[in-house]
Amino acid sequence: MATAHSWRTDDEPPNYPQLLWSTSRLITTGIAARRRQGFAVGVGRDIEAGRVNVRRVMVVQQSPRYELAEVRESVRRALAGLELSLSDWIRAGERVLLKPNFIRQSHTERPDEWEQIITHGAVIAAVAEEVAAALRGRGTITVADGPQTDSDFDAICARTGVRELAGRLADRYPDLKFEILDLRRECWRTVNGVVVERRRLPEDPRGYTLVDLGERSFFHGKTGRFYGADYDTGFTQQHHSEGRHEYLISRTALDADVFISLPKLKTHKKVGVTLNLKGLVGINGDKNYLPHFCMGTPAEGGDEFPSSDAKARVQSRLIAAFKAVALRTGRATEWWAPWARRLGARVFGSTSKVVRSGNWWGNDTTWRMTLDLNRILLEYDGTGQLRQKPLRYLSIVDGIVAGEGDGPMEADAKPCGVLVAGLHPVPVDFVATQIMGFDWRKIALIRESFRLVDFGPQDVEWCGDRPQFRFRPHFGWVGHVELDGEAVAA
Q1: Residue 486 domain-assigned?
Q2: Which of 86, 136, 307, 394 counts the most CB atoms within 10 A of its CB?
Q3: Which residues, in sequence order, are bridge partners of residue 209?
Q4: 56-61 and 272-274 strand pairing
Q5: Is 306 in contact with 228 (CB distance < 8 Å)?
């Protein structure tokens, strides 16, 4: 069974026991209700306005440069290849959400590099212009994402030029509303990777929905000590235990009439690739709801480390103790924690060189969380009920300058000059993974994603160009994901 609870942004999300007071507002739905609808949600043959083929993926090659005129033409070629007329698919007055990858304003170690880290503003602008025309200048375009918690949203907006884009569209379409939303509930200031200050943010103006997937979760039947994205591991456990699997999802995302995903073609340390599927982490309001790995070694039922030797066991316990103390000491953490972290790096090695925190091919946690988020977006509306009609979904992956190596935030630039487009995240990510030179069967996120649809890999229609690259994986994945089975030299 699945349950949901909604609240506005000025309400605090209740802890699970406190949900008893709001039983009258809970909406309970089940698999049987989904079957009665008579279609696979998000995959229907006829998605609202005109027939579309969700199995088709269109690949367009261009130069590896972000010249707006060329990007515009590539976007139009992609839409034509999908046989999608936005003016028929989108109606005047509707709300269209553009979801880019806004994870961080730059490469972690090289602040002047960013084109391989986030979706480029030229891609956002080209798509927004097409959408504004389809809306006949009446409706709402929302650019929204929830970046890494310690990222600078204003710097991201400056680099992508989305505020200038809003001004240009306002001049051309006076009745068009253009929103730019940071979907996070708080942001952090960190020193050497340690959280030393927390600041509340305005949040999603439409609120959030707490969705419990229960037995429909990809975590169903899996046990472990889940670690989320903050020092308070008990919070993550509370929302993923005793049959509960709860996520705090943006109402702006769930209530959009049309959802357009604009991810980056890039590697990822925990799931292999970050494309449409992994990008949905950005519609969650609080990342501590998201299990990223199971604490402990494989012998202990965890996937924090690839090894179960004594060194890994000691590290796991010390890291857990460090985070427990950091949670209790609050602002005082600023004075001792960076020093302790540097000492740990000297003894055990830096996370940029040593596999820990689930940053390897054997992570059996993050892909499940990612597919849960996709199930919620594709199958549930803003009230937490199963959708009565399929979501209108479009993806255009920005691979003009892609990211290889230690993604998602320390990826190296890989000029590819490619856009990958489609009407469902599963086939698009399936094709994009192969373009990167990876074997989709070796990536659990891609392999298991076909459980979200009513067709198989053999049914995907790859149209347009067929480029083939050899991306270098994150170092925790080298030798375990390449399409030809041969490691790409670091």
Answers
A1: no
A2: 394
A3: 6, 249
A4: unpaired
A5: no
Considering only CA atoms, which of 148, 234, 144 is closest in space to residue 190? 148
Contact 249, 281 (CB under 8 A): no
Helix axes 153-160, 162-172, angle to 10 degrees: 60
Residue pointed to by tokens 């972290």: 341
* Tokens read off for 380: 């549930």
Location of structure tokens 């030797």 = 309
- In the numeric block, the tokens 């004594």 are attached to 310
Tally the residues of the chain. Answer: 490
| Three-class secondary structure assignment of 198-209 | EEECCCCCCCEE
Cα(210)–Cα(201) distance, rounded to whole angstroms? 19
Q: Which residues pair with 294 in a beta bridge?
A: 226
Domain count, the chain: 1
Residue 189 placed within a domain: yes
Question: Which amino acid, 464?
Answer: G
The kind and range of the H/E element at 260 are strand 258-262
DSSP 471: P
Tell me, what DSSP letter sits at residue 438?
B
In contact, 5 and 384? CB cutoff 8 Å: yes
Cα 397–Cα 391–Cα 169 angle in degrees, nearest 5: 60
pLDDT tens over the chain, length 490 residues: 566 655 444 444 444 333 322 322 333 333 333 333 333 444 444 444 347 999 999 999 999 999 999 999 999 999 999 999 999 999 999 999 999 999 999 999 999 999 999 999 999 999 999 999 999 999 999 999 999 999 999 999 999 999 999 999 999 999 999 999 999 999 999 887 788 889 999 999 999 999 999 999 999 999 999 999 998 999 999 999 999 999 999 999 999 999 999 999 999 999 999 999 999 999 999 999 999 999 999 999 999 999 999 999 999 998 888 878 877 777 667 667 676 777 777 778 777 788 999 999 999 999 999 999 999 999 999 999 999 999 999 999 999 999 999 999 999 999 999 999 999 999 999 999 999 999 999 999 999 999 999 999 999 999 999 999 999 999 999 999 998 755 554 4
Is residue 473 assigned to a domain? no
Beta strands in 194-346 (DSSP E): 194-200, 208-212, 226-227, 246-250, 258-262, 264-268, 272-274, 293-294
SS3 386: strand
> By C-alpha distance, which of 143, 260, 108, 248 is closest to 186?
248
Sign of CA dihedral 463, 89, 76, 417: negative
Residue 252: Cβ-neighbour burial (10 angstroms; 0-12, 13-18, 19+) = buried
Cα atoms in the Cβ-side hemisphere of radius 13 Å centred on 344: 24
Q: Does residue 483 sit within a domain?
A: no
| Closest by CA position to 315, among listed 330, 327, 304 | 304
DSSP 45: S
